[in-house]
Write a structure and sequence with these properties.
By secondary structure, the chain is of the alpha+beta class. The chain is built from 3 helices and 10 strands; from the N terminus they run βββββββαβββαα. It has 2 domains: 4-39, no CATH class; 43-175, Nucleoside Triphosphate Pyrophosphohydrolase. Helix content is 19%, strand content 46%. It is elongated. InterPro entries: NUDIX_hydrolase-like_dom_sf, NUDIX_hydrolase_dom.
Amino acid sequence: MADIETLDSKVVYENKWLRVREDKIRRSSGNEGIYGVVEKPDFAIILPIEGDTVYMVEQYRYTIKERQLELPQGAWENNPGADPVELAKGELKEETGLTAESMEYVGFQYLAYGFCNQGYHIYVAKGLTQGTQKLDAEEEDLRVVSLSLNTLKEKIKTGEIKDASTCNALGLAMLKGFI
């Protein structure tokens, strides 16, 4: 028997970006309860670096009512099963206008598996060429910001950068020797 058995499941909300389910469950102890699950497609996050320069994006994040600096990242809602490297290349081009000679795969992580099934693929992009951005309507205020790798590390240490996937992507890339 599984640690938690699903007895019933119903979708309580859905839009083009996410679905929210409420599952009736039974734990291995026999106790029943409910579990809320947010379903979102996996995304790619890209660390574009040329020499000592990292290219990031800054945009207004409505949920926290602040502009935030983060690595380029995103999912394709109309193609949730897209090849992760193609997704990474596409998001990099869309958000920054950059294309990369190489996309090095760092690894896969989950965003917040306590309530959400979404994960993300981490890439380091090198050999960058500048082109034109192709922003979605939701990204109209997005700006590209370049900074040194040391400045990025300092902004993470001081708490100025709060995006967990950005912090994790940089940390994992460093631990694995990609940068």
